[in-house]
Amino acid sequence: MKKHSKKKFTLIELLVVIAIIAILVSMLMPALGKARNMAKMITCTNNLKGIGTGMFQYFSSFDDYIPPFYSTSTGSWIKPMVDNNFLPSKLKDGVYYGVWRCPSEKKMYQTYSSYGLSAHIFKTKVTIYRKPSQVYFIADCDDPSMNPWPMSSYDSSRYRYIYRHDGPLKGIVMLQLDGHAEKKNTLIRPTTVRTEEGSVAWGIPASALTD
Hints:
Layout: H1 11-61, E1 70-71, E2 75-76, H2 78-83, E3 91-92, E4 95-96, E5 115-118, E6 136-140, E7 145-146, E8 172-176, E9 181-184, E10 193-194, E11 200-201
């Protein structure tokens, strides 16, 4: 009876297999990274949509007023949202999690949230904006207050939005005042206008106040 010897890999064949696997992995990594970044952006978008839903409850309960981004009595705008049960707190060791945290946030700048409310529209009524889809409301930010206009008089590197989401062009996820959220690669800097009540609303497009 003949004994069949088992064929063994030679060193060269083994190296060829390893090289092929390495090539396949290098081809798949960008696609996997893109899918991971897309998943994070979708989660962030859903977070902001959820915050938007809670905000509409706030509007209904507080005579259509937009909450201040910070006040000495309530602290940041997040506290009244949580205290009135418009959104869950998800508080752990003094830090807010859940809907309040962007999964793409690499460094936690603030314990409140990954998002900031526009410092240009607080203390105004949501009803004065005829085109709320044009009004920047809440976005990726490193502070509870968001200054979307780096060239405005309210200029501070801490209060600007953050381009957290990777891609062909870095972008931020922005919640508009009408409740829809989307990724934006650039922001248009509109002119300063005054509301019907006489208060300044910096950074609001004049067209957003008219039909």
